[in-house]
Specification:
It contains three helices and no strands. By secondary structure, it is an all-alpha fold. 0% of the residues are buried.
Amino acid sequence: MAVSEEPEVLRQRLLAKESTLRNLSKKFLSFTASLESSTPEEASTKHTALLKEIAAYEFGVSKAHSLIHTNTQQIDAYGHMHRCDSINSPVDGDQLGINCSA
C-alpha cells in the first residue's frame, strides 16, 4: 500500500466507525423518547436491546484497540530483528550478536 493511500484508508475506517456511533446515538435517543409512552415491559425490552447494541460497539472498539496494540508490538519486534540482522563486519557482528541475544 502506498503512503498516499493510507490517509484515505484511515478516513474510510473513521467514517465507518462514525456511522456506527451515529446509529447507536439515534437508537439511544429513540429509546429515551419512547420511555414515556411505553409500558415497563416494553421499556425493559428496549433497554436490553440497547445494552446489546452498546456491548457490540464496545467489543468492536476493544477489538480494534487489541489489534493496534498487537501491530505496534510486531513493528517493534521487526525493528529489533532488523537491527540484529544488519551486521556490517564480523567483529561488530560478534558484539551485536551478544547485545541482541540479551
